[in-house]
Specification:
It is a single chain. With 283 residues, the chain is of the alpha+beta class. It has a domain at 6-28 and 83-167: Ku70, Chain: A, Domain 2 (Beta Barrel), CATH 2.40.290. The chain has six helices and eleven strands. The protein has a seven-stranded mixed barrel. A hairpin with a 4-residue loop joins β3 (48-49) and β4. α3 (186-199) runs parallel beside α5.
Amino acid sequence: MATSVWKGFLSFGLISIPIRLFVAARSERISLNQIHKDCGSRIKMPLFCPVCNRQVPRTEIVKGYEHEKDQYVLFTDEELDKIEPESARSMEILEFVKTDEVDPLYYDTSYYMVPEEEGKKAYQLLLKAMDESAYAAIAKITMHGREQIVVIRPRANGLTLHTMFYANEVREVAEYGRTDKVELKASEKKLAEQLIESLAAPFDPSKYRDEYQVNMRDMIDAKLKGQQVVEAPHVKRAPVIDLMEALKKSISDRQAGAANKPPMRAVPAQASAQKKGGKKAAG
């Protein structure tokens, strides 16, 4: 059974819905450890105090803020608990906004919001009202040591919560969005639109995979079997000189590829689920 990362209330006017949050997505990657080349032992990072010249158990550790060089204000866990805001226990919806007005650039981490038994009816009421009105909710929640702004939106018969970056955390890049000194011909735009249409398809995240992780697993298997590591192929690319010619060739290659490609076979959901036990997904 999945472990919840936050438990509290979602407040909607005078209605309070007891809920739990579960991590909705987590990146998966192969972790490599630091190994001493001479003896093959894993390098460890002990908690070490340079003044006392000894390793320190976690029971002797407190948190501290460096207000001057090597000068710290110390805090106990009990003191930190005392300053937790109300949002540590209850999320109050601050306002509703149209879902399509929220720039995905602000999204950070995603969570599933699941109601407790006594809150299911109020949860379903809020879910249906938000879904039919195309609104998302903006709220605040305190977890992982900070108060975060979140957006709550309907998805697949449930409510999902996304922590968001604050406006001051979104970086500005001077070069981004500059369109000066660029002139586009109507014929170029038309060909670009044709290329987009030739690549258009319904969004299906199961079609994609992390090629680097696949290659890493293959390399690990090869090493364990004493085999030679095979170098991954790379396409040689050069800057586009003739934009029109590049667009025409891209469309031509795409059409030729589509003509030679066999039709996709629908895979039943049960069979698809059985393939996830370590087999490579279709790229």
